[in-house]
Design goal:
SAM-dependent_MTases_sf
């Protein structure tokens, strides 16, 4: 197995793991079932990666977009959890994965290799708000844009109702403006306590807003809001 670059880790034993990420490491097989095959992570990436069963179900639901949509753009690829699930679904002719942190991008590429799907993904290092209009605008008409943005760290759980307008570093209005300039079919992965009234404002007139909670062990982990033409059973 290739040694990970500086700042990237594969922790084998609990005594190697920094305290602040220990609870996530103990859930490592729910995050990546192939963890022992050499999954790479940065310490910060543990906070944002989607658990594999959730990512798999999201990929199934996003696949319900119209058949004319043949491209999937993952605007915040992170360590690759969602991107890998999209590639494994076999639904998309092209998948673009954007990540601005080069070390996290190295993790995503390597992890996709572990799952055997690295060659199905076009990797782009950069900020989604720059990459989308400059490099992917022409692809947008045939694309679904998926975004699992940073939520501002673990403190998002402190709020009974999460204010998406104050989400850091990117607010809901910022995300919607950037994504809707590229595609009319958008999926956002957000905290389970997100303020639904804020989400409703972005639905088109007469359009029902589709919100799906994704659960593990009977408890919601997060939700996705589907803006556009999705048929979810």
């Amino acid at each position: 197995m290739t040694d990970p670059p500086e700042g990237v880790h594969h922790y084998d034993t609990a005594d190697e793991v920094p305290f602040e990420i220990s609870k996530y490491w103990h859930q490592r097989y729910e995050i990546f079932s192939k963890y022992d095959e050499g999954i790479w992570m940065t310490d910060d990436a543990w906070f944002g990666v989607t658990p594999e069963p959730v990512a798999t179900r999201i990929a199934q639901d996003v696949a319900s977009a119209p058949e004319s949509k043949s491209i999937l753009i993952d605007a915040f690829a992170g360590a690759g959890g969602n991107t890998i699930a999209f590639a494994l679904s076999g639904r998309w002719k092209q998948i673009f994965a954007i990540e601005k942190d080069p070390k996290v991008l190295a993790c995503a590429k390597h992890n996709a290799e572990v799952y055997g799907v690295a060659k199905k993904i076009w990797w782009i290092e950069g900020d989604a708000f720059t990459v989308l209009p400059k490099r992917l605008k022409q692809s947008g008409k045939n694309a679904v844009v998926f975004g699992s943005p940073p939520w501002g760290g673990p403190t998002y759980t402190d709020f009974e109702v999460f204010d998406l307008g104050a989400m850091q570093p990117y607010s809901l209005p910022q995300l919607h403006t950037a994504f809707s300039a590229i595609s009319s079919d958008i999926v956002l992965y957000l905290p389970r306590t997100s303020d639904l009234q804020q989400l409703v404002k972005h639905a088109k007139q007469g359009e029902k807003l589709r919100v799906t909670h994704y659960c593990m062990r009977g408890a919601s982990k997060a939700l996705c809001v589907f803006l556009g033409r999705f048929i979810i059973e």
